Amino acid sequence: MSVGQPVVRVEGRRKVTGQARYTADIAEDGLVHAVSVGASVASGRITAMDTSAAHDAGGVLAIVTHHNAPRTHPVPGREVSGPAGDTIPILQDDRVYYAEQPVAVVVAHTLEQARYAASLVRVSYALEPAVATMYQRLGEAFESRYARPVVVGDVDSGFAQADVVVETTCHLQMQHQHPMELIAMTAHWSGDELTVRASTQSVGVLRAGIAIAFGLRPEQVRVTSEFLGGGFGGKASLWWPTITATMAARVTGRPVRLVVSRAQMVAASGHRARSQQRVRLGARRDGRLTAIDYDTITETSAWYDTPPPSITSITPIPYRSPAIRAIPRFVKVNTQSPTPMRSPHEGQGLVAIESAMDELAERTGLDPLELRRRNYADREPWTGKPWSSNGLLECYDLGARRFGWSRRDPKPRSMRQGGLLIGWGMSTAFRLAESRPASARAVLHADGTVLVQMGTQDIGTGTYTIIGQVAADAVGVTVDRVTAEIADTDLPPAPPSIGSFTAQTVSGTVTNAGNALRDKVINVAVADEQSPLYGAAPEQVIVHNGRMRLRDDPARGETYAELLRRNGLPAVDAIGQHNPPGIGEGTHGRYAFGVDFAEVRVDPSLGTVRVTRYVKVIEAGKIINPRTTRSQVIGGVTFGIGQALTEVSEMDTQHARIANASFWGYHVPVNADVPAIDAQFVEVDDPHVPQGVKGLGELCTIGAAPAIVNAVAHATGIRVRELPITADKLLG
Amino acid sequence: MEFHKPRTWPEALAIKAEHPDATPIAGGTDVMVELNFDVHRPDVLIDLTEIAELREWFTVDGRYRVGSGVPYARIIDELGATLPGLAMASRTVGSPQIRNRGTVGGNLGAASPAGDAHPPLLAAGAEIEVASVRGTRLIPADEFYTGVKRNAMEPDELIAAFHISPADGPQQFAKIGTRNAMVIAVCSFGLALHPSTRTVGTGVGSAAPTPRRAADAEAFIAGELDWDSPLPLRDSVKRRFGELVAQSASPIDDVRGTAGYRQHALSVMARRTLGWAWDEYRRNR
Question: Which residue intervals define the domain FAD-binding PCMH-type in the entry (chain B) (predicted)?
Answer without folding.
Answer: 1-169
